[in-house]
Write a structure and sequence with these properties.
5-stranded mixed sheet, binds NADP nicotinamide-adenine-dinucleotide phosphate, 6-stranded parallel sheet, 11 strands, about 30% helix, alpha/beta
Length: about 270
Amino acid sequence: MSRPFAEVIGDPITQSKSPLIHGFWLRALGLEGDYRRAHVTADALAHYVAERRIDAEWRGCNVTIPHKLAVMELVEDPGDIRGTIGAMNTVIRQKDGALIGTNTDAAGFYAPLAELDLAGAPVAVVGAGGAARAVLFALARANVGYVTILNRSPLKAMGLLATFGLKGEVVALDAPLPPAALLVNSSSLGMTGQPPLDLDLSPLPDDAIVYDLVYAPLQTGLLKAAAARGLDTVDGLDMLIGQAALAFELFFGAAPPEGRDDELRALLTA
Ligand code: NAP
């Protein structure tokens, strides 16, 4: 018998932790439904979307590398994600077959920072890819001050400052850090299989926060160096769980269970 399902699509996809997260919540709530992994190459994306659009059991999908930009051309965009964040990570199927694209990364990223007042605060962001777009969108909404982007491709990063109306500059990856209140790594550097992110954290003030979006490994070299300096840190699982929680509610119509994050983190790091 068929039952409602959602999935995560990407290429590669075996590394995705989304099935573990959504599966944990489905079981915890006793909801009928599945959350799967689908390997979809760039060439097959349009076919995948057309096929799922006519499947009434399909609630939607999360979208990961390399489809976050391409999928915007294939779905409806009532929230103007194209004109704002510029990358989609979630597609929801309406009962009539309409597909709505959205982005839960920005809110997921910001959730662990929500209690802070970042207005006017100088921040530094490493990276200028899809994740950086969500980060910069959220930081612009928080009215942060001067933004220093460290990125391999400077032009791309300059474009993002302009897109999000941020005052700041772009510097090379090996430039000295500014005295930022918040340092975010939104690049792939430090991820398993990628080069390390070697930053000298000494210019950061003692109350700075270091936030790494990379969650494989969870304790990245950057977070270890920040902890060694006594700085507060936020790891990539906070954002991963935060963005998944918003998507889960959109797919399955129920909020994830409360008070189970420690159990979920243990499952994700086992
Ligand atoms: P992306 O669009 O491919 O962007 C990758 C970024 O990393 C770009 O800025 C790229 O620089 C830089 N980069 C990659 N390889 C590099 C290298 N060898 N040397 C220097 N710079 C390099 O990827 P993304 O979607 O933004 O994802 C970036 C990271 O964030 C990944 O580790 C992903 O797992 C993580 N992420 C985590 C969450 C979460 O929920 N925790 C959510 C989304 C993403 P160029 O601009 O020069 O190409």
